[in-house]
Amino acid sequence: MTNKLRSAGVLTALALALTGCGGAKVGETEQPAAGAKECGTFNLTVSPWVGYEANAAVVAYVATKDLGCKVVKKNLKEEIAWQGFSTGEVDVNLENWGHEDLKKKYIDEQKVAVAAGSTGVKGVIGWYVPPWMVQQYPDITDWKNLNKYAALFKTSESGGKGQLLDGDPSYVTNDEALVKNLALNYKVVQSGSETALIQAFRDAEKNKKPLLAYFYEPQWFFNELKLVKIDLPPYKAGCDADPAKIACDYPPYDLDKIVSKKFADSGSPAYDLVKKFAWTNEDQNQVAKYIAVDKLTPDAAAEKWVNENQTKVNAWLGK
Amino acid sequence: MASITGSVEIRVRRPRRGVLVGVLLIAWLAAWFVLRGIDTLSLGGQETTRLHRWLTEQADVLGRGNAFFDAIRIAVDQLVVLLQNVIAQPSYGRPVPVIGWLGVVAISAYLAWAFGNWKVAILTAAGLSFLGVQGLWQESMDTLALTLGAVLLALLVGIPLGIWAGLSNRAFKVATLVLDLMQTLPTFVYLAPLTLFFAIGPAAATIATLIYAAPPVVRLTAHALRSVPAESVEAARSLGSTRSQTLLKVLLPMSRSTVVVGINQTIMAALSMVTVAALIDAPGLGQTVLKALQTLDVGVAFNAGLAIVVLAIVLDRVTTAAGDRPWRTASIRRKVLLGLGGLGALVAVWFSRTYLWAAEFPSDVNLGPRIAVAATDVTAWVQDVFGGFTFGVRDAVTEGVLNPLQALLTESPWWLVSVVIVALAFLLGSWRGALPAAVCLGLLVGTGVWYDAMVTLASTVLATVVVVAVGLVLGVWAGRNRRVDSWIRPVLDAGQTMPPFVYLVPFLALFGTSRFTAIAAAVVFAVPVTTKIVADGIRAVPVATVEAANSVGSSSWQVISKVQLPVARRAITLAVNQGLIYVLSMVVVGGLVGAGALGYDVAAGFAQSELYGKGLAAGLAIVLLGVMLDRITQAAARRTPKFRRTVRGDDKW
C-alpha cells in the first residue's frame, strides 16, 4: 500500500510542478488599500431580519463606496446589540423597534448611546390571516367576529379553543392580555420563531388551512403573500399604559436609529450619513426583495438600489 | 454465568415492584379526577415572579469589566484569530490567508496519514476539497478555526479533569453533577451573559462552545478509567508499579479507545454549537445557516449544514483512526516516507502562498447552488407526498399519548405530582432515587416556572422513551455487525451534527408548529449519541464471553438479552443518560418550533432583557429536570443486585 501511496505522491508533486507554475500570483491584482481617509472604521450591528439587512446593506455600501469607511458588520440579536453599546463593540443600530426600556437604560442612565432620528420606515404589529380566509369569510377582519370563527382555528395545541399563533420572542406581545380583555375564546400558542410563523402562513394559504397569527410589517414575506390584518379596537395614546389591562391594537412604530455616544462624538462623516439616512417602507421592501426573493448578496442588492435612486443617496451625503 | 442467577433474583422482585408502581399510578389518576386544576402554579408568558426580577437585576451587576475575564478573553481571542489568520481570513497585509486551500488540504491529509492511515488521508483530502466545491471554503475554514480552538481548549481542560474523576470517587460525584449542569443548561441562558463577560467576538463564541463541548471528554475519560478491570490494576501494583506508573502504563493505554470516543463526542458537540454560536456573531457556516433561515431557504441552509457534517465526519474518522493506531516506533522506511510526505505538504503550502489558484478555491467549480436546488426539491416533494399523513401521525400521538400525559402532570396540584414522583423514585431506586427527586422538585417549585416545567417534562419523557428504544435497537445492531456500523455511522454523524435549524423548516412543513415537531427534532438529535454508546458497549463485550454463549447453543436473541446487554449495562446506563441530556439540550430549539413552555421561556429571556431572569430560571428548571430524571434512572439501574457485582474499580485506589 505504501508503495502505491509513494508513487501517487510523487506523481501528484510532479503534476503540480508542471501545471502549477502557470497562473496568477497572489498579490498581483491587489487593489489599492481602501479606507483610511478621514472616515475610519465603524461597527454596524445587523439584526436577524431581512428588512434590517436591507438598511444595513445600503448604508454600508454608501459608506464604503462614497466615504471610504471600513464597515464591520456584526450579526447580533437586538438585545445583545444594545449591550454592545456599553462594551464598545457596536456603534450603529439602523432599525430599532421601540424598546423604551432599553433606551432608558442605555441612553438616559448609562449614557453610552444616543438616538439618531427616524429611518422613515413605519412598523406595524398586529394579528393577520392568510388571504384565502378573507375571501371565504369577509367579515373575519373585524375582531368582534373572531369568536364566531374560533372553532375553525382549533389545533392539537390549543386545548379546544381557537389558536392564536405568536411569533419570535424578541417582539413584545400583549396577546395574552388582549385575548383575556376582549373575552376571546382563543389560546395563545407560542410558535417561538419567525421561521415557524412564515412556514405556518405558507402552509395555511397553500392547503387552505385556517390560521390566525401575530405578524408585522414591513416584512419581505409580504412580497410573496399579502396577509390581511385584523382590526382590533383602535390604538389611542395611553391605552397600553397598564400591560395587564390592554384591550386595544398595537401602536404604530416609528423605526429609528441608535448610535453609540463614542461614534456620535467622533466627527466621522459616517455619523452624518447615518443621521441623514431615511427612506420609505417601499424602498426597504424593494431591497429586501432583492435579497430574500431574488437571492442577491446584500452588497449587490444595495448597489442595484443605489444606482436606481441616486438622488436619495445624494441627499444623505449632503451633496 | 453470574447473569443467570442475577436474573432469577430480579424475576422474583420485579412483579412486586411493578404492582406497586401500577397501584401508585392508578391512585394518581383517581386523585387527578378529584383535584384537577387546583394549585397548578401556572404563570402567563409575560408574567414574572420576584425571583425572576431579582435575577434580571443581577445580570447587569455581573456584567462589569473584570481583569480576570479580560485576560481570558484576550488569550482566547488571540488563539482563534491566529487560527483564522492561518487558514481562513486575509491576514498580515495579504489578500489571502497565510495558507491557501491547497496547503490546508495537503497538511490535513498528511497529518491524517501520519497519525491515522492512508484511507483517512484520502477521506480528508476529498472531504476538505468538497467544502470548496460547495462554494463554502472560507466559511468552512472560519468554522474549523473556531472549532479547533474550542476543542483544543476543551481537551486541555477536560482530559486532566476526566483522569481525576476517573481515579477519585469524590471527584467523580462532583464532576457528574457539574457536567450535567454544563450539558443541560441551555446555551441560550449563558450566551447573552457571556457577551457581557467576554465582549462580542470570537472569545465569547469559543467559550460558549467550550462549555457545551467539554463534558463528553471528561465523562468518557472518567468512565474509561473506571472500567479498566480491577485485575489489571492489581497485577500492575503487585509487580510494584507506583501510582503514576499504573496510570501511565496500564490505565491510560487500556482506556484509550473510550477516551477517543470522548474526544469524538467533544468534536461533534463543538460542531453542533456552530449555529447557536452564530447568534453572537461567531463567524463561519453558522452565519450562512441563520441567514438562509430568515428567508426559509432550506436549500442554502442544507448546503451549509452539509458542510458542517462533512467537517464532522472528517474530524471523527481521523481521530478514530489515530486512536486505533497501535503505538510503536516507526520503521526507517516509514520515517523516510513521512519525511517525503512532509516535504510534499510543504511544497503544496508554498504553492498556496504563491499562486492564486492554490490560494483561493476556484469559483468555477461551484456545486453549492445545485446542492441547494436539489435539497429544496426533495423537501418540497417530501412535503407534498407525506404532508397529510404526517399531520395525522402528529394528531394521533398528541391526542393519544402526549395530551393525557401532559394533562396529568400539569393539571394535578404541584404537591400531588411531587408526592407521586418521589414515591415512584423510591420504588424504583429506594432512597438513592427518592432523595434527589425530592430536592429537585422542591427547587423546581422555587424557580416559579413549575407549570411550564411539567409541560416540558411530558414531552421530554416521551422523547426520551423513543430515543432509548430506537438507540438500543440500532446500537445492538451496529455493535454486533461491523458492516452495519460503518454504513450507519455517517447517518448518525449527520443526525448529530447537521444543525437542527436546517431541518426545522421541513419539520415545520411536515408537522406544523407543535410540541410533536419539537419531540421529532429532539429524537433525530439524540438517537445518534445513544446508538454510538450502546454500539461501543456491545463491542466491548469480551469475544470469549459471546463465543461461550454461542457454543452452548444460545440463539442470537438469547446472546443479546442474556449476555451482551447485561455485560454492557454500564454503557447502556450511560447511553440513557446521554440520550436524556441530548433531548433536554434540544428543549430550547423545540421552543422555536412550537413546544412553548421552558424552551420558549429561555429563548424569550435571551431576546428580551426584562424576561432575562425568567429565562435563567427556566434554564435552571431544565437542569433540575435533567438531574432528577438522571438520578432516578441511575438509582433504578443500581438497584438490581447483579449490577453491584459488575461495579468495578470502586475500591481500586
Automatic annotation (TrEMBL), chain A:
Name a GO molecular-function annotation: transmembrane transporter activity
Matching CDD domains, A to Z?
PBP2_BCP_2
GO CC, any one term: ATP-binding cassette (ABC) transporter complex
Where is the signal peptide, in residue numbers? 1-26
Provide the alphabetized UniProt keywords: Signal
Q: Which InterPro entries match?
A: ABC_Gly_betaine_transp_sub-bd
The residues covered by the ABC-type glycine betaine transport system substrate-binding domain are: 43-308
Transmembrane segment boundaries: none
Name of the protein: Glycine betaine/proline transport system substrate-binding protein
Natural source organism: Kribbella caucasensis
TrEMBL record, chain B:
Can you supply one Gene Ontology CC term for this chain's record? Answer: ATP-binding cassette (ABC) transporter complex
- Which residue windows are transmembrane per the record? 18-35, 120-137, 144-167, 187-213, 259-280, 292-315, 336-358, 412-429, 457-479, 579-599, 611-629
Known SUPFAM superfamilies for this protein? MetI-like (SSF161098)
Localization, per the record, is:
Cell membrane; Membrane
- ABC transmembrane type-1 domain location is 140-319, 453-633
Specify where it is mainly localized. Answer: membrane
- State the PANTHER family in the record: GLYCINE BETAINE/PROLINE BETAINE TRANSPORT SYSTEM PERMEASE PROTEIN PROW (PTHR47737), GLYCINE BETAINE_PROLINE BETAINE TRANSPORT SYSTEM PERMEASE PROTEIN PROW (PTHR47737:SF1)
Q: How does the UniProt record describe the way this protein sits in the membrane?
A: Multi-pass membrane protein
Q: Which organism is it from?
A: Kribbella caucasensis
Its name, as the record gives it, is Glycine betaine/proline transport system permease protein
PROSITE patterns for this protein: ABC_TM1 (PS50928)
Record keyword Metal-binding present: no
The record's keywords, sorted A to Z, are: Cell membrane, Membrane, Transmembrane, Transmembrane helix, Transport
